[in-house]
Amino acid sequence: MMEKVKNAPVKYVIGVVRFPPVADLDKFAGAIQSELGEEYPFGSSPRFTELSIKVDEKGVEVTPQEVALWQFLNAGRTCGIIVNQGLVGLHTMAYENHEDFLGKLLRVVEVARGLEGNPLRFVEALALRYVDLIVPSEGETLSDYMQAKLPTDIGIDGLKMNDGVNVLGMKSSVGNIRLQVFLNPKTVLPTDLISPLFADSGWGWELPEREFVTIDTDHATVYAPPIEVEKIDIREHMFSLRKPISDIFKKIATQHAMKVWGLE
């Protein structure tokens, strides 16, 4: 996943930095846009409902609440900055390479750190998530592209498997990794990623006409308690988050796949 080539399987990437909530989201987001507006001229604030779960002596209380989240898209509407009260991030459906993507993400972080009032003094978490789409060419099968074991049926006569998912949770030297391998899912991207941000961006992916696999790799570092931003090298940590994602991808893919994708 070093270079962007015609057949590269990377379909979507998101990177985020989470911190204690700021008091005034609109002011915070507006200050970021004033710094980066030339690069990301299209701004909007989608509002959507999420469930707030509260646990206390009364039990578990689940209530819906409206959440505001700003997005600033680049001129080509292929890459967007995400800002909410306790998070800045970057996501794209036109991934070039990890140096380019992480460089853009770190630029957003540096702008947020330098704002008046020093709103980003502590970091709660860092995370990277990559989604790859593997579609064999006509006449080929998924086994030509995948070394990893695919979701399989349970061997009952008369039953044919339509779809499935393998999920693995792993620990790295810097955090936790979740790997999901979806066989013929109903949507190209995992459903938890599909949000009003995509509609606002005009992003969408058509389902392949033949069997396919979506690989979803999520790697996060959580600081509990939050750590002072001055005490960590966010750039180094982001690159450390990315390396196991790349290693997993190379382990999953066959040599034939790497050749087809031009990633040998």
Write the layout of secondary structure elements.
Elements: E1 10-18, H1 25-36, E2 42-44, E3 47-56, E4 59-68, E5 70-73, E6 79-84, E7 87-92, H2 98-113, E8 122-134, E9 164-171, E10 176-183, H3 196-201, E11 213-228, H4 234-252, H5 255-260
Antiparallel strand pairs: 1-7, 1-8, 2-5, 3-4, 5-6, 6-7, 8-11, 9-10, 10-11
Structural description of this entry:
- This protein has 264 residues and is α+β, with helices and mostly antiparallel strands.
- It has a nine-stranded antiparallel sheet. The chain has a two-stranded antiparallel sheet with strand order 3-4.
- α2 runs antiparallel to α4.
Question: Main attributes?
Answer:
single chain, alpha+beta, nine-stranded antiparallel sheet, disordered N terminus
Structural class, from secondary structure content? alpha+beta
Spatial gap, N to C terminus: 10 Å
H/E order of the elements?
EHEEEEEEHEEEHEHH
Number of distinct beta strands: 11
Mean pLDDT: 89
- Tell me the helix content: 10-25%
Instruction: Note the main sheet.
Output: 9 strands, antiparallel
Helix tally? 5
Question: How does the overall form come out from the CA principal axes?
Answer: globular
| Unreliable sequence segments | 1-5
What is the strand arrangement across the widest sheet?
Answer: 2-5-6-7-1-8-11-10-9
Using the CA coordinates, give the radius of gyration: 20 Å
Q: What proportion strand?
A: 35-45%
Task: Summarize this structure briefly.
The chain has 264 residues and is of the alpha+beta class. The chain has helices spanning 25-36, 98-113, 196-201, 234-252, 255-260, and strands spanning 10-18, 42-44, 47-56, 59-68, 70-73, 79-84, 87-92, 122-134, 164-171, 176-183, 213-228.
